[in-house]
Amino acid sequence: MANIETKNVNLYYGDFHALKDISMQMEKNTVTALIGPSGCGKSTYLRLFNRMNDLIDNVKIQGDVLIDDEDIYRKGINVDELRIKVGMVFQKPNPFPKSVFENVAYGLRVNGINDKHIVEETVVRSLKQSALWDEVASALDPISTAKIEELIHELKKEYTIVIVTHNMQQAGRVSDFTGFFYIGELIEFGKTVDIFTSPKKHQTENYITGRFG
Amino acid sequence: MTHLETELSNLRLELNEMWALVISQVKESQYALLNFDKDAASEILFKEKMVDVFELKLDRDCENIIALYNPVASDLRLTLAVIKIVLNLERIADFAKGIAKYIAKSPRDKINPELLEVSRVEELLTNALAMLMDAKTSLDNENSRMAISIFSKDSLIDEVTNGSNKVISDYILKHPDEIDEALNMHNIIRKIERMGDHSSNIAEEIVFYIEAKVLKHNKAARK
Question: By the 8 A CB rule, do B29 and B191 touch?
Answer without folding.
Answer: no
